[in-house]
Structure formats: C-alpha cells, structure tokens
Specification:
197 residues; alpha+beta; Murine Class I Major Histocompatibility Complex, H2-DB, Chain A, domain 1; 2 domains; 3 helices; 10 strands; 38% helix; elongated; signaling receptor binding; Class I histocompatibility antigen, A alpha chain; peptide antigen binding; immunity; transmembrane helix
Length: 197
C-alpha cells in the first residue's frame, strides 16, 4: 500500500506493512460478508427478513461489537494520528496564483474568467464587479476543486460586451493573501483598496 499524504513519510515502515495486511484481511472479511448477504437475499422473500437474519448472525458471532470497536477505536486513533503527523501540512496556507483569461465567444461577446490556482485552504471567494457593482447573478462559478497535487483551484466567469472588458474587475479573498486582491483583464492584478470602501 502506498500513501498519498505527504506527511505519511514520517510513519515507520512497519506501520505500512501492518496497514497493508489489515486491508487484505478486511477485504477477505467483507468479501465473505457480501457473499453471505447475497445468499440470504436470494433465500429470503422480503428485505426485512434478510436484515433480521443478518442482525441475528452478527450479534451471535460478535461481529456487530467487533465493527463498533473498530470504528470507535481504530478509526478514531488513525484519524488522530493523521492529524498529528499532518498538522504542519494541513495548517499551511498556500497563496493562490491568480490571472484573468479573455475568450471571444461565437456570438461576439467575451468571456472573462478569473482563475485562482495552487492555493491551500479551500476557502476562497472570487467575485466579479462591473463599475464597482457586484455581478454575482451574472457569474458562472465552479466549486473549489482539488488540483491533484494537494492544492486547489477555482474560477469565476462573466460574459461581457466586446470593448467593455476594462469595466470589470475580479475580487479575490483568501486567508493566504495579506489583503483582498483585484484583477482586471490585461492589467494584471492590483491590491484592493478595501472591500468596505
């Protein structure tokens, strides 16, 4: 088994051997369990009866208690371990890389797209303004999504009339930024005076 969290390199090699063995063991347990469930459902006329049979078997064999113990102990301890080893990584703040793209549409209008890339923590706000007025109803926004490298990305777009691009500004707020930023097509970005002004 290979990990996908950067802080997992701090774990002892024996940890990974045991984790791999546990996964293979659980795979076999769940495979047998699934086979049993399918068998019971094929033999039973109602779903309720099958559930009743499974519940009785699990309680008789102690499986329900074993599963409860696994969830309450092993899973909770694993989560605490992940948080302990990953604390520094998880609490970091990567500043977003920002830019605005410009694309002429088939109808002659222009799509301005404000991009925020390679940032960490997921909380970020992208809004478009026209002459200082919010355009939230006219924006297309994607949800923040993983970039695949431990960072995130997001964009917000607005469709504008050709020649009016300079009337639009993208406002970005993220905890990694010392203050909110304002971007404009072709002008790069500039620091926002203040969102309250």
């Amino acid at each position: 088994m290979e990990h996908c969290a950067p802080w997992e390199d701090q774990q002892h090699p024996q940890y990974w051997e045991k984790a791999t063995d546990d996964i293979f063991y659980r795979r076999e347990v769940y495979k047998r369990l699934l086979q049993r469930v399918l068998h019971i459902y094929n033999q039973s006329e109602t779903v309720g009866k099958a559930a009743e049979i499974l519940t009785q078997e699990w309680e008789k064999e102690g499986y329900a208690q074993h599963l409860k113990s696994f969830l309450e102990r092993y899973c909770v301890n694993s989560l605490h371990s992940q948080l302990y080893y990953g604390k520094e990584f998880l609490l970091r703040t990567d500043i977003p890389k920002l830019h605005v793209t410009h694309k002429v549409r088939a109808d002659g209008n222009v799509t301005l797209r404000c991009w925020a890339l390679e940032f960490y923590h997921t909380e970020i706000t992208l809004t478009w303004q026209r002459d200082g007025n919010n355009q939230t109803l006219d924006m297309e926004v994607i949800e923040t999504r993983p970039a695949g490298d431990g960072t995130f990305q997001k964009w917000a777009a607005v469709v504008v009339l050709p020649g009016e691009e300079q009337r639009y500004t993208c406002h970005v707020n993220h905890e990694g930024l010392p203050e909110p930023l304002t971007l404009r097509w072709g002008k790069g970005w500039k620091r926002a005076q203040s969102l309250s002004q």
